[in-house]
Amino acid sequence: MQVRIANVRKEFDRFPALHDVSLDIHSGELIALLGPSGSGKTTLLRLIAGLETPTDGKVFFGDIDASEKTVQERNIGFVFQHYALFRHMTILENVSFGLSVRPRATRPPSGEIRGRAMELLDLVQLSGLEKRYPNQLSGGQRQRVALARALAIEPGVLLLDEPFGALDAQVRRELRKWLREMHDRTGHTTVFVTHDQEEALELADRLCVMSQGKIEQVGSPDTVYDNPTSPFVFGFIGESSELPVTVENGELWSGGRAIGVPAPDSKTGEARLFFRPHDVELVEHEASLAGVVTSSRRVGGTRRVELEIGGDGHKVEIDLPFDHPAGEKTRLAFRPKRWRLF
Amino acid sequence: MATKIRHLHRHHTSPVSESRTVQVIAIFLCLLFMALFLILPLWSVFIEAFAKGVGAYFSALVNKDAQSAIRLTLLVAAVAVPLNVVFGVCASWAIAKFEFKGKAFLITLIDLPFSVSPVISGMVYVLLFGAGSFLGPWLKSYGIEVLFALPGIILATIFVTFPFVARELIPLMQDQGTGDEEAALSLGANGWQTFWRVTVPNIRWGLLYGVLLCNARAMGEFGAVAVVSGKIRGKTTTIPLQVEILYNEYNGAAAFALASLLAMLALLTLVLKSFLEWRFGDELAATGRH
């Protein structure tokens, strides 16, 4: 189902959590709401679910205005960070819950409910555990039960609030891959909240990057990574280095020296240069950024070097081959291969 | 090597634990204290109760006034405890799951009966429903007696025992948060289904614990009830009041026979309470706080 969020504003005790947010979620896509804590991503998810009501604005499910509907009427599947499984029910009872609370008229017979729950447990690869209780399961298993429980009501939209946030790194990676496969198989419109950019980049069809109650950028992982439209997005997604520069005569200047980087348009004045540490080339005898190495450490297959540029204490990070002999006090000159100016 | 490790392990004590001698002395002092102040009195209750033989013990219990006191006590508990369960669940639900103005005040108010002397609690009802009050004569004109009658006793008991359930449930429900309820609602359950199928099972052991303590106090309450009951023999005396009357009449054996019932209630409560704490400790909010 297609979900449209139109000019939604949300205040908690007059403290704004979301300012005028609009977002179109396509039918069948897997979209990530990504942002640091306090960016309003969870609030937005809960607004879609109906667990919060917007101060202003509307939420549409397809063509229907869902803003006035209660959470029960919206037919959404919600997965919580801390699972929220019913601890006094078995796994089977947990998964069956959504169907068994339906009014008599629409409730399937108990045999059918059981069959459906067993099917879902099979789908989340937990067959054989239906008689267990939640506290007898590992975190990863619990979250899969929570997902099966949410899927049982055949939701129009699946909403996941930091679904892997409480799990350790190994399980997280496995579940991430598994969720992607699940999504490809079932095709639910899925919205998930995360603060983990790696998770969002790997899992989502599209990212919605949020900061301080606003949407910064929406786009495919590649677009957001390669063409960030704001300094926040550049800094938040992937590694980045930042340097204040001056734009003059169609060129960028730092510390009174041209750095060999052409300015994109005719504007002049102060600006901030952003580039990825790995998108640089070392140069000699040419206009470049030059600095003194202040620290150098090896990270896996590369060497991450911190350079102090000029006398103002501005520091940037660049990546070198791990066997590069750069040590402290070495002077290095480089030029970013790709960059953005804000 | 293995034996060496075990050897080391045995002698290795945690830095915060005291030496063996201090431990023994501390434990001994505790036991002595308990024996002197708890077990000895309890023991003497039963000794006194059976002082004139088993026959006298049972005849004291089947005595008409004693029977009436037992019935009244059971009746009062049967009314006060369920009402306090309803009130306690409502109050803790409201406090734990909603944000509203005056929440801190409500929590303080719930604690009030704990901090007020029971005698004062009784006096309040005398002032409210007594002959010189506004409410008393008005209700009397409709034929409803509150003071020196069953309604007064029940009101005073409810007042004295109402913190027990709420006090047990508030921290428990605050700790559990609203996640389970939100999950149930998102799965399509209505409020009623959510309450009975998710909230109540989550708090059931805590609730039972609160009911247990509430019941023990409701049956054993003396001060507040003494003030409002008027101690009309065979009519408005509960077990504790009847014990006092008998004792004042130098009828020690009968007094202690009745008292032994309360003592047994206390022991039973203690056993059940310990069982709940042992078995469902993680589902109780305030284990051993009272």
Structural overview:
- The complex is a heterodimer of chains A (342) and B (290).
- Chain A has 342 residues and is an alpha+beta fold.
- Helix content of chain A is 24%, strand content 36%.
- Chain A has a six-stranded mixed beta sheet, sandwiched between helices. In chain A, strands 13-12-11-14-20 form a five-stranded antiparallel beta sheet. Chain A has a five-stranded antiparallel beta sheet with strand order 15-19-16-17-18, with no helix packed on it.
- The longest helix of chain A has 18 residues, at 169-186.
- Chain A is elongated, with a radius of gyration of 25 Å.
- Chain B has 290 residues and is mainly α.
- Chain B contains 14 helices and no strands.
- In chain B, helix 4 (64-97) crosses helix 11 and helix 8 packs across helix 11.
- Chain B is globular, with a radius of gyration of 24 Å.
- Classes of the chains: A alpha+beta (342), B mainly alpha (290).
Q: Which regions of chain A have little confidence, pLDDT < 50, spanning 5+ residues?
A: none
For the biggest sheet of chain A, the summary is: 6 strands, mixed
Query: What is the number of E strands of chain B?
Result: 0
Shape of chain B: globular
Approximately what portion of the residues of chain B adopt beta-strand conformation? under 5%
Radius of gyration of chain B (CA) equals 24 Å
Q: What is the percentage of strand-forming residues of chain A?
A: 35-45%
